[in-house]
Amino acid sequence: MKEFTYTINDPAGIHARPAGILVKEAKKFESSISILTANQKGDLKRIFAVMGLGVKQGQTITIQISGPDEDHAADTIESCLKSNL
Amino acid sequence: MLTVKGKCVFAGIAIGPMALFHRSTISTAAHTIENVEAEAVRFHSARKKAISQLQDLYDKALTRVGKEQAAVFEIHQMMLDDPDYIEAVEDTIRANSINAEAAVDQASKKFADMLSTMEDTYMQARAIDVKDISRRILEVLSGGIGVDFTKYNHVIIAADDLAPSETLQLDPDKILGFVTSEGSTNSHTAILARTLGIAAVVNTGTALHTDVDGKTAIVDGYTGLVYIDPDEATLTKMQQKQAESLAYKKQLEDMRGKESMTQDGYKVELFANVGNPNNIPQVIMNDGEGIGLFRSEFLYLEHNDYPTEEEQFEAYKKALEGMKGKKVVIRTLDIGADKKADYFPLAQEENPALGLRAIRICLTRPELFKTQLRALCRASVFGKLSVMFPMIISSDEIHRSKDILQEVRNQLDKEGIAYDPNMEVGIMIETPAAAIISDELAKEVDFFSIGTNDLTQYTLAIDRQHTGLDKFFNPHHPAVLRLIKQTIENGHKAGIWVGICGELGADLELTEYFLRAGVDELSVSPPAILPLRKKIRSLNLSQK
């Protein structure tokens, strides 16, 4: 399993558009991908789950990935977070 | 006359007959279904059809309002593909043996409630997106009765709220404006209205009924007021306001493609300030003649780690190519004070504005500076790039910065990598020290750009974020204006150009003063360009 953390820079937090971009990227992989906040967990392939976390600017999230393409998925999701959030 | 007040979405004035927006009512009443599996299949085929409709809307939006705004229809497709949403509908059909319409309606309420009870007002506003996608499935289930937009011609639409997909279908040539009793200025609908340029007021809190149909209405997108069946005096007043608003917009529109020159032939370069290569389309749209301040901080602040040479090179190259050969002045790292990044260790300081920031960081950590200069040099062959150092207070700092730049160039020569050897090197004049010795500094560089925000703060010793000091703060303080004038004169004595890139550059009350002082370039935020050009073209320096 791969795991990393990321702190949200975007003033609007994970709003609909970047949530959509993340879900779209996550769906390209076979691995299961989760997004965790301090007290909640969501499936990164499900838009309502991601939006429902209501992640705000300055909040640190953890991404957990496990599956056959986890290395590639981790790189992709990380750079996706960096360029959109 | 009925007057209601809501929130302004787009500053424009619309006057015309009102039309109440009608949606076909779709029954979502529950009834028992014998064959639940067939009903689930019915739901799925409606869902797939709805997704393909959204793909069509996405393609349409892409050409009308651009990728950023079109994204909402991509998100709507994801919502219809969300396993949680699908499960909610399927489970309801199976568990209760009820029709797909009722199950979709229940799922819609469940997810809309989930969003509308969130703390964040932005997320609350997303409930409308859930209702929009659910309604789309219901329309397909009921045989595809959609809203007939062709019947709305030359009217102001009154609705409870408009879904993004509905707004997108409004033709700005046929729809004068709209007013909604619900909705928020954060909604995709509001954003679309702004992009399409439709006068709009939302969230009036007053539901309008069929009795307003056909009555004259006025939507004032400047004040958020909507007048229905206005009296003569109001109508006359608003017609005048509308004419003035249109005339002003047209005057600005007329400024496009014109020279930024006074009536007696004094020409100024009118550039834009930007913080990200994504802002380039805005510069082009507002007819910026170049970029006078490209802040490179976004590369550092929007990342989790130091940006690599390659990442920086790509960003600079994109900006240069976007500006198609027009000048782009890129300011090197100006971090510190109020701008900080997690990975970037900066000690807590008693006085951050007077602390380790900007060029002081670069000269303390030359490796960091070299990476940026290398990326800039490499990008310089893709357009007309000028590099600018911030927070300079002495000739020595310029020497040290230029020495590092020379080292970078030597290394590139060794590696056989191309760069523009004539790239201009300039400095920001934003400390009183630099302004006072600008005669000496002018001998060392190719240009000056006066950063009036910091120059004002340091000259007056007033923190501009400190609201309690407003009564002491005079943005036109003579000390600041004299320093600016002196800097321009000293620059010209040494034969270099001098620009202004702070907020004062866009202050129309000072335009004449700056032009009389001899300023060569003004760099302002993109929306301020056309009003400033209009001001410049109205001036005649030979008079008075």
UniProtKB/TrEMBL annotation, chain A:
GO terms for biological process: phosphoenolpyruvate-dependent sugar phosphotransferase system. InterPro entries: HPr, HPr-like, HPr-like_sf. The keyword Disulfide bond does not apply. Keywords: Cytoplasm, Phosphotransferase system. Pfam families: PTS-HPr. Its main location: cytoplasm. Residues 1-85 form the HPr domain. GO terms for cellular component: cytoplasm. It is found in: Cytoplasm. PANTHER family: PHOSPHOCARRIER PROTEIN HPR (PTHR33705), PHOSPHOCARRIER PROTEIN NPR (PTHR33705:SF2). This is Phosphocarrier protein.
